[in-house]
Design goal:
Length: 302
């Protein structure tokens, strides 16, 4: 049996702090809203190539590459921590597929090559990508619920198989789950912050039992998902990865919905970031293996 440690090491905490500082400084809330506004004006989101190169220089895409290959020499648990921070700030772009391709596609690790992957009916960032793994024949642009993620639908073809290192791989499933986890944690923070500041009948709404329950449920779902994602990153077991993905999807989607309820009318305004987290969480559940795929995999193993 694998000995799973849930406490982060000092180096892992330092990595998480460093990634958080990098992303908050380079893609904070103002940059997020500017990207959303730009996508609205232009009719489509644009990939920030400069930011992509900065991520490459910081080793974001090369965390799991061995040092002799120019990487950082760490493992999947450390990559999960980095991608959790990316989900927290809603960093746009095909982050997971570029990281997965770091060992095989020249320039992916350095952030000079953007990689997407066609391993499902929906494929993101086809037009912005330098390399598309898998077949994109017949791809048709479709409207995306997320203003910062352009989508194409790729028709099914007989004999078409998914690339082995795409979103359906255990690492791809876990890195996507880590993004969901970061989003869930952030919406929980937003709900608690609003509950502390917003007053009704002369009292913070966080003092009301119904609001307390919503915030507590958000925290429980997030922490349960975090334990599952971190554990699966250590074991790299495909079934554990599927279970972690299910929990992370639930934490992200239900967390954003509960945050909307806590925030009330404020949460439904365009100026609030909650709807952006909900839309990205919805979209991630449809990229790569679906929830039904994960459930079938777990059920078959019982």
């Amino acid at each position: 049996m694998t000995d799973v440690h849930f406490q982060l090491t000092d180096d892992q905490r330092a990595l998480r702090t460093g990634v958080r500082q990098l992303l908050e400084g380079r893609f904070g809330r103002e940059a997020l809203r500017a990207a959303v506004d730009g996508a609205e004006r232009q009719g489509a989101p644009a990939l920030d190539r400069e930011l992509w190169r900065e991520l490459g220089e910081a080793g974001f895409f090369a965390l799991r590459l061995p040092e002799e290959a120019g990487g950082v020499g760490l493992g999947l648990p450390e990559a999960v921590l980095a991608f959790e921070e990316a989900g927290r700030v809603l960093l746009p772009g095909p982050l997971v597929t570029t990281e997965l391709a770091a060992a095989t596609v020249p320039g992916a690790a350095a952030g000079t090559t953007v990689v997407t992957c066609a391993d499902g009916p929906l494929v993101s960032w086809i037009d912005a990508a330098d390399v598309a793994l898998g077949s994109t024949a017949g791809a048709r642009a479709v409207r995306s619920v997320d203003p910062l993620t352009p989508l194409h639908r790729v028709p099914a073809a007989p004999g078409r198989s998914a690339p082995p290192q795409g979103l359906r791989s255990p690492a791809g499933v876990l890195l996507t789950a880590a993004e969901q986890l970061g989003s869930a944690a952030r919406t929980c923070e937003l709900a608690v912050q609003h509950a502390r500041q917003r007053e009704q009948f002369g009292r913070p709404i966080g003092s009301f039992q119904a609001v307390k329950h919503l915030c507590a449920q958000m925290l429980v779902r997030t922490e349960v998902a975090r334990a599952a994602v971190y554990a699966a990153a250590v074991t790299e077991d495909p079934l554990e990865a599927s279970g972690a993905r299910l929990l992370a999807d639930e934490a992200a989607v239900r967390g954003a919905r509960d945050c909307l309820q806590v925030c009330g009318g404020m949460g439904f305004t365009w100026e609030s970031d909650v709807h952006l987290h909900l839309k990205r969480a919805w979209l991630r559940t449809e990229l790569g293996p679906s929830s039904a795929d994960a459930e079938e995999a777990l059920a078959s193993a019982l």
